[in-house]
Design goal:
With 234 residues, the protein is an alpha/beta fold. The chain has eight helices and twelve strands.
Length: 234
């Protein structure tokens, strides 16, 4: 399993050495920078999973580093400062910091806070990925890219075919009438159009059959409509 990478930024070598030892004991790999430009260079080149950032850096302070870091990416940031000032904390959080620790601090607490933040942010990333993709019965749909695969083979779908397959795959086993499919896929319906769904379903079945063989993924429920076989594993 790949180790998480922490970027520790402080002009005090004793602090970065101490924090490095605690992060490494918890299974992290560690990068160290002692000024703002060095921190931004490491951030750009290595893309760490989390950054612990001292506010009072020489030349470029932690606020400016935080502001520029947000232009590079969304790395979680824990700010360190010797000043226990609410205004400083609020400014840091508004700049994009995720947490704030005042000196003197427990290095163990900093590591614990880092792990909590990473669990939260990684959980959000996983949830976003889940929302943007569907995996069911051998099918994978990427809603952002409008692409679909059966097993490892990409399906060449029209936008309408993709939307129909996405609708059926989002609730496998649920039966949709032709009119429901039209309303969900087109956003509106007019008389006679629901019959064109049969043609789209026929094309989808043909394209799926090229990769799934005799497996009938889209099933007809006579007198009602269509459904996708299988259970959702997203």
């Amino acid at each position: 399993m790949e180790r998480l990478l922490a970027l520790l930024v402080d002009d005090d070598v004793k602090i970065t050495t101490l924090l490095s030892s605690y992060f490494e004991k918890e299974g992290f790999s560690v990068l160290v920078a002692h000024d703002g430009p060095g921190a931004l260079a490491e951030l750009e080149a290595k893309r760490p999973d989390i950054m612990v950032l001292d506010l009072m850096l020489p030349g470029m302070d932690g606020w400016e580093v935080c502001r520029q870091a947000r232009r590079i990416g969304d790395v979680p940031i824990i700010m360190l400062t010797a000043r226990d000032d609410e205004v400083d904390r609020l400014v840091g959080l508004e700049m994009g910091a995720d947490d704030y620790v005042t000196k003197p601090f427990s290095p163990r607490e900093v590591v614990v806070r880092a792990k909590v933040i990473l669990r939260r942010t990684q959980g959000k990333a996983a949830e976003k990925e889940k929302e943007n993709s569907v995996r069911v019965n051998g099918l994978t749909l990427d809603r952002d890219a409008f692409r679909a695969w059966y097993a490892e083979s990409e399906l060449e779908l029209t936008p309408t075919e993709f939307r129909i397959l996405d609708l059926l795959a989002s609730s496998p086993g649920r039966v949709y009438s032709r009119m429901q499919i039209v309303e969900q896929v087109q956003g509106y319906a007019f008389e006679g159009y629901e019959r064109t769904i049969d043609a789209h379903i026929k094309n989808l079945r043909r394209k799926l059959a090229e990769h799934s063989g005799e497996l009938q993924l889209i099933q007809t429920v006579y007198g009602v409509g269509y459904k996708l076989a299988g259970e959702n594993h997203a």
